[in-house]
Amino acid sequence: xxxxxxxxxxxxxxxxxxxxxxxxxxxxxxxxxxxxxxxxxxxxxxxxxxxxxxxxxxxxxxxxxxxxxxxxxxxxxxxxxxxxxxxxxxxxxxxxxxxxxxxxxxxxxxxxxxxxxxxxxxxxxxxxxxxxxxxxxxxxxxxxxxxxxxxxxxxxxxxxxxxxxxxxxxxxxxxxxxxxxxxxxxxxxxxxxxxxxxxxxxxxxxxxxxxxxxxxxxxxxxxxxxxxxxxxxxxxxxxxxxxxxxxxxxxxxxxxxxxxxxxxxxxxxxxxxxxxxxxxxxxxxxxxxxxxxxxxxxxxxxxxxxxxxxxxxxxxxxxxx
Length: 321
Description:
This protein is α+β, with helices and mostly antiparallel strands.
């Protein structure tokens, strides 16, 4: 009887842990192809090359079908208890931020340049971007929907789940219903892949890239030796030791390095950290700021600056703030 009670307690505990398992935060975004092909785009000249970028705001204001499709996919994910970031709300947040950023310029007089999807990733900080491509095919009185849905890790842009399908022909004029019918039969497997990817991140850490660089005129380089905790080592080696101590399972890859830079890839940072007794989400900026704080203390006493290159890559530049 005692063993049965212990087994029952263990099963209940396991069920409770499973029920409380964290799910990735997602945001549904129309694909670049859909936006550009349907005229929801902006263009600019990048040193003689014309670059086309999606214009999400224009799409949301003019394309009722895609707006409804995004709403339906979001609803399906919400039913499966995935936390959502709303594209339209995030676009409002970006507009407010853009108004403030418009007065900011760099030392050379240039403004802040960022692609729409990078800006969305930075603002929303969703774990997964659900990239949705939809086309409506007409055959007489009947319509059917063809869709491509890709789940992209917001930090690495790696495709971690995908699903494609074609709905059954229908006389329904509602694109929302057609989307719902076409997608529903594919979503269990898709959501399973998303959750498996997030579970791997929860266990093994989120993958990011880190670059350590030096400002021109820096008084130190990565070969300079410091006495740290009774041992004398080069700065580059001590930084690598810090990476080993502060990654999940010591997982990272130093892919290249000289006395002037180190490039780290496949850096696995924890998803969460505790501050003032509260659990907070860890991101690349927070992680690299911790390295910055480490180098600001004795025996290094080094000033450095954190420069973000998208959501999943950061540079720590040593030599000045």
